[in-house]
Each structure stands twice: as C-alpha cells, then as structure tokens.
Design goal:
about 375 residues, mainly beta, Immunoglobulin-like, 6 helices, about 30% strand, disordered C terminus, RHD_DNA_bind_dom_sf, DNA binding, RHD domain-containing protein, RHD_DNA_bind_dom
Length: about 375
C-alpha cells in the first residue's frame, strides 16, 4: 500500500510571513486574525492552512483516521538534519490530541471533512522567550519510520541556536495517522507526508510611543516564577530602570531583574509573594512599579493567588507556554486548560479539557 498511495496535498499554504508572538500575547479574546496562523492567498479562499485527502486514502482507511500536524526546522548546509522545531504549536480544539515530545497535534477527520476530502487547521505558534530557550537542553531530530535514530543535538546556549538552526524559519509537516487504541502509539503513514512552504516569523517590534501600555499576565502563583511581558511606550532602552513589586499593607517591595524583548518590551519573573496566601485571603493584590530616572513611568496591579485557584480562574492568557524542565510547577499560561500531554511509555493520552471556571474574591494586601 505504501508504494501506491499518494501523499496529502496542500491546497491552502500557510502565509510565508507571520507575526511572532510569545505565549502571553496569544489571547483567546483577540481576533482570530491575530491568533491563528493564516493561509496565503489561494483559489479556494480558505483563511487557514488546508489539505486535501486523496481518494485512495479515503477508500483504504474509511473514516477513522487523523491528520498529524508537526512543526519542523528547515535543513541547511551547516545543519542538514531536520529537527522538531522547539516553538510550540497549539489549538483551541479540545478534541485534538497533543504530543509535546514531538510538538505535534493530531486532528481527527470529521464525517463532513471525510466526505469533502479536505481539512482546515486553526492553530497558534508560540515563540519561546530567552529564558525558555536557556531551559532547553537539546533539539530532537525529526525521525521517520524506518530511519535510524540520529543523535539529539545538544546546545549549551540555544539562544545562539536561534541563528544556527534558523528558528525564525519553519515548515509544517502534515501526515496521516491512525490509533489502534488509546494505550498504543499512533501509526504514522510516512508515504502521506507533505511539507508546507517555508514560513518566516517576523518580529513584532514595538517602537512607537503611541502604542498603548500592555502587561500580561496580570495574575500569578504566590510561589512566584511566572514570566511577565510588559510593553512600555515611555521606556528608554538606553537608560537604566528598575522593576519593583510593592506590597501596600507591609510597605515593602522586591526588586526583580529584567531583560529586553524588543525596544519597548521587557520580560521579568514574579518573586515569591511576601504575604501568605490563605483560605480566608486567597488572593493578594500588589503593584508592579517601573521607575526610570527616579520617575515612576508604569504602575499596574498584579494578583497573587494559590496555584489550585489558578487552574479555575486564570482566564487572561492562552494555554501552551513551555514549562521549565527544572520545575514541576505549571505556569499560569498552562493552567487554563488541561489539554497538553506527553506520550508516557510511548502511549498517547487524549486531551481532557476543564471548562469549569470560578472567580475568587480579590483582597488587597
């Protein structure tokens, strides 16, 4: 069957250029045009990348199969091996199976899609911050069935790997997959593989002072270590500044380190909350203050809360942020939905989505 079967066909390629976004910037309240990878101009007028399923596959597999979507690096003369791209892809579709270890999404082909022989994909692509790149230790080669395992590429500083492996460039890999059971790994039909055109992420540099102030997320775990991205139009990158977490009730503050993402955007991590979070006082409201030239240029409220509360009430960011390998604590960005699983012992776990939400009462420090 493998020799006779045709590959999938892409009838709506992804746009060649897309705006790179960090996890904190991917917000489900934004328009879809800002969140999902869009399709290039195509004869079918599809808004999102779309593939066509050849009739031969429909006749052979009937209806019970998936399309696997994987993000891949692009081979170069200096790095001829194709790697699994480290920038996570994600989707709001709760029926999708996600394999973090291979950065893949498994989309089930619905009855209507099977009848039409086409499937469209709505997904996000998240750029990793410098901290996340530092936490990664290696890039995994994209291994196809029948190939020998190739050595995983280790790197002491994956920030330099952004240039070495050209991580601003990527390709989508579409493959047909089937599952015999929920306890067995998927069967990937390599002959169905098709790579998209190359995609290039463009940096969304914020340099215009007219652009409004933005900060995300505005909630975090009381134990700290949640990453915050802040766009500050008034900031001057050439001059020193400080970032403080101020506690009004105890009149104390913590100064935190920071780094620039672009000319007007900074990244920093929350410190552990100085005030205990209790059942009677489940949330603590503090102030993040940014000062430059001894002048306060930004002040914004930030809410500390217990980690178990985050799972139910943190609604301001999309899921999908990478979790630091050095920590078992999930980030706030990951706590909104439980739909990310790795393949333990080469098995596949289906996504389980928690739609229940409840809001806690915010109490000032």
């Amino acid at each position: 069957m493998a020799n006779a079967m045709p590959p999938l066909r892409i009838i709506a390629q992804p746009k060649k250029s897309y705006r790179e976004r960090y996890g904190c910037e991917i917000n489900r309240q934004q328009s879809r045009a800002q969140r999902f990878i869009r399709a290039a101009d195509n004869d079918y007028k599809f808004e999102y990348p779309t593939i066509e399923i050849p009739q031969e596959w429909k006749d052979t597999l009937r209806q019970d199969f998936y399309i696997r979507l994987t993000l891949s690096t692009i081979p170069t003369e200096s790095e001829p091996i194709r790697y699994i791209h480290p920038y996570p892809i994600n989707t709001e579709d709760t029926t999708v199976i996600r394999d973090i270890s291979t950065n893949s999404l498994y989309f089930r082909v619905s009855e209507n899609e099977f009848r039409l022989g086409r499937k469209t994909f709505q997904f996000t692509l998240e750029k990793l911050t410098q901290y996340m790149l530092r936490e990664l230790s290696s890039l995994k080669p994209l291994i196809f069935e029948g190939e020998n395992n190739q050595c995983t590429r280790h790197a002491t500083d994956l920030r330099s790997a952004v240039k070495r492996y050209r991580l601003e460039q990527s390709q989508l890999l579409f493959s047909i997959a089937t599952f015999k059971s929920s306890t067995e790994p998927p069967i990937i039909y390599r002959v169905s593989n098709v790579f998209s055109n190359e995609m290039i992420g463009r940096i969304g540099v914020t340099t215009d002072d007219s652009v409004g102030f933005r900060c995300s997320p505005l909630r975090g775990d009381w134990q700290g270590h949640d990453e915050i991205l802040m766009v500050i139009p008034k900031i001057d990158k050439r001059k020193p500044f400080t970032v403080h977490f101020y506690y009004p009730c105890i009149e104390q503050s913590d100064t935190v380190g920071h780094e620039f993402v672009d000319a007007k955007t900074i990244s920093f991590f929350t410190p552990p909350c100085r005030v205990p979070v209790t059942r009677d006082n489940p949330t603590i409201l503090v102030r993040i203050v940014v000062c430059q030239n001894e002048t306060e240029i930004v002040r914004v409220d930030f809410t500390y809360q217990a980690l178990n509360e985050c799972v139910n009430c943190s609604l301001n960011v999309m899921p999908g942020s990478m979790v630091s390998p050095a920590s078992n604590k999930r980030s706030i960005a990951d706590s909104e939905e439980d739909n990310e699983f790795e393949f333990p012992n080469d098995t596949v776990n289906r996504a389980e989505n928690n739609e229940d939400t409840k809001h806690s009462t915010i109490k000032k420090c």
